[in-house]
């Protein structure tokens, strides 16, 4: 007999991830490098001096101020929670429940999973050639929805556009995001910038000009703090005030907060690592051109998508060489695809060797 839970939850699959052990782990788009030792020591020292028996800030006010100061965004429009994963669910609850979630496909799995869990109608627009985000088709969906939603009270829903796109690494032009922002009144437009540091200018200026735009960011990728679990939204004060109502009180722990404060006070390590990752991404991209059967896609993120004749076979043969990557062939349009995270130079060389290529 089913447990007494909502039908939408019963019908939803679990998050598609199985942990696998391997000497070289390039499967989750994390940073291969831990927080520098000196900064880790500072975190531990600050944690030692803090009281753990008291609740932290109600809404992570000090943390929002530090993030806002670093990113150039007002604290009042900054909402930090346990990972941007959590924010995806909260944004669906904020504007998508009983309404729509509009996104692209393939996409980061959580947009669709959360749409189902929270009872939103899911509309997925296939990516265009070269995995480009088809903004015209997204706008057409918005227009088509206008009539269907006419007379209805409440938001039309929430739009998720990852930029760079995950899991392909393609980059939607800022001019297209601007067009989407102009066309999406009545919706929340979420630009998921989990990988923005690897991609050049962000959509920040667009978000400044449009109240309904939300930027999603994370400490899990460029900052190398996936284990700390911290993500945040940058948006207008009016949207942030409503979003905060959905965040559980005292949601950001002292550990998360201290990690972020220390990292934000020493951003140079992050900038250096991002530069190294971009250089490595281009080196690995070039080396992969020599593969007889694989086709690598250009990427603006810290990973590369590769189309192979057989994803399961490519995955298994890399794993037997000690390198763990992610199969992506179950996603729409990604037959044969695997995804590899850009690691350190040594890790990337091991990946290229396991792929039968010489490391240039
Ligand atoms: C596009 C995208 N958004 C959000 C996330 C979630 O990040 P977080 O670790 O902050 O929950 C990921 C993680 O892989 C991602 O790829």
CATH architecture of the largest domain: 3-Layer(aba) Sandwich
- Quote the average pLDDT: 96
Q: Return residue spans where pLDDT drops below 50 for at least 5 consecutive residues.
A: none
Question: Can you list the ligands bound to this structure?
Answer: pyridoxal-5'-phosphate
Number of helices: 13
SSE succession:
HEHHEHEHEHEHEHEEHHHEEHEEEH
Q: What's the Cα radius of gyration?
A: 21 Å
Classify the beta-strand content into a percent band. Answer: 15-25%
CATH homologous superfamily identity of the largest domain: Type I PLP-dependent aspartate aminotransferase-like (Major domain)
The main sheet orders its strands as: 2-8-7-6-5-3-4
How many beta-strand segments? 13
What this model shows, in words?
The protein is α/β, with parallel strands linked by helices. 41% of the residues lie in helices and 16% in strands. It is built from 13 helices and 13 strands. A 7-stranded mixed β-sheet has the order 2-8-7-6-5-3-4, sandwiched between helices. It has a 4-stranded antiparallel β-sheet with strand order 9-10-13-12. Strands 1-11 form a two-stranded parallel sheet. It is globular and about 60 Å long. The model has no long low-confidence stretch (mean pLDDT 96). It binds pyridoxal-5'-phosphate (PLP). Pyridoxal-5'-phosphate binds next to helix 4. Pyridoxal-5'-phosphate is lined by residues 29, 83-85, 108, 162, 166, 192, 194, 218, 220, 226, 231.
């Amino acid at each position: 007999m089913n447990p007494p839970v909502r039908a939408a939850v019963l019908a939803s699959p679990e998050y598609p991830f199985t942990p696998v052990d391997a000497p070289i782990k390039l499967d989750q788009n994390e940073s291969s490098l831990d927080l520098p030792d000196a900064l880790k020591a500072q975190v531990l020292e600050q944690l030692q001096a803090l009281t753990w028996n008291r609740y932290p800030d109600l809404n992570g006010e000090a943390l929002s101020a530090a993030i806002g100061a670093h990113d150039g965004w007002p604290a009042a429009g900054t909402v930090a929670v346990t990972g941007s994963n959590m924010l995806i669910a909260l944004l669906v609850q904020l504007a998508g429940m009983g309404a729509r979630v509009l996104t692209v496909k393939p996409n980061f799995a959580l947009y669709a999973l959360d749409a189902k869990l929270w009872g939103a109608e899911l509309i997925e627009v296939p990516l265009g050639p070269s995995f480009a985000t088809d903004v015209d088709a997204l706008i057409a969906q918005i227009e088509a929805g206008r009539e269907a939603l006419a007379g209805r009270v409440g938001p039309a829903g929430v739009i998720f556009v990852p930029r760079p796109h995950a899991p392909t690494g393609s980059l939607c032009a800022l001019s297209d995001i601007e067009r989407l922002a102009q066309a999406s009144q009545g919706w929340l437009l979420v630009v998921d910038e989990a990988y923005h540091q690897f991609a050049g200018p962000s959509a920040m200026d667009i978000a400044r000009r449009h109240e309904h735009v939300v930027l999603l960011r994370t400490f899990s990728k460029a900052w190398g703090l996936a284990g700390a679990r911290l993500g945040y939204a940058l948006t207008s004060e009016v949207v942030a005030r409503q979003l905060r109502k959905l965040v559980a009180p005292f949601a950001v722990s002292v550990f998360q907060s201290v990690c972020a404060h220390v990292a934000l006070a020493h951003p140079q390590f992050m900038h250096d690592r991002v530069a190294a990752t971009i250089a490595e991404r281009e080196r690995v991209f070039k080396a992969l051109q020599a593969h007889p059967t694989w086709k690598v896609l250009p990427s603006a993120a810290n990973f590369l998508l590769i189309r192979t004749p057989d994803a399961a076979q490519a995955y298994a043969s890399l794993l037997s060489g000690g390198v763990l990557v992610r199969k992506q062939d179950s996603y729409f349009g990604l037959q044969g695809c695997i995804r590899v995270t850009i690691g350190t130079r040594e890790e990337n060389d091991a990946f290229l060797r396991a792929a039968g290529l010489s490391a240039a």
